[in-house]
Amino acid sequence: MTGSAGLPGVAGSGRFRGGPAGQALHSSRPGAIHQYVFPGGQIPSIPAIRASLRQHTGLRVTADYPMGEHYARTLAEWRRGFTAAADQVSALGFGKQFQRMWNLYLAYCEGGFRAGYLDVHQLVLERRGW
């Protein structure tokens, strides 16, 4: 996830999330995740990344590895570990409301990746002309 200044060519006037078929979906009203977990965060779509690379860099995507199914399992493990460490998290000064919010965030993301609504990709970039 990146802020609006983190990716040239991606508008910063709202919130973005990756949608079906790699579309960038825009919402002018932030949800709880954008409001409390990643305020100002944006998730550019693969087409938006490709367009930005084309317009602002000498790089191009040469391989694209979707990993959403694997990331869902990672999120489930993070949530199990976070829940198991609740006493330690509390001892660090993070209260029950914070812990519920992070459990919700991790579960929400896990569900989104399992359903295929969210995805994460590893992109291999090369300089154009190589």
Description:
With 130 residues, this protein is of the alpha+beta class. It has two domains: 57 residues, no CATH class; 64 residues, no CATH class. Helices cover 46% and strands 18% of the residues. The chain contains five helices and four strands, in the order ββααβαααβ. The strands form two sheets. Strands 1-2 form a two-stranded antiparallel ribbon. A two-stranded antiparallel ribbon has the order 3-4. α3 runs antiparallel to α5. The longest helix is centred in the last third of the chain and has 20 residues. It is elongated and about 55 Å long. It starts with 14 loop residues before the first strand and ends with a strand. The relative contact order is 0.17. The N terminus is likely disordered.
How would you summarize what this structure contains?
The chain is α+β, with helices and mostly antiparallel strands. Helices cover 46% and strands 18% of the residues. The protein folds into two domains: 1-57, no CATH class; 67-130, no CATH class.
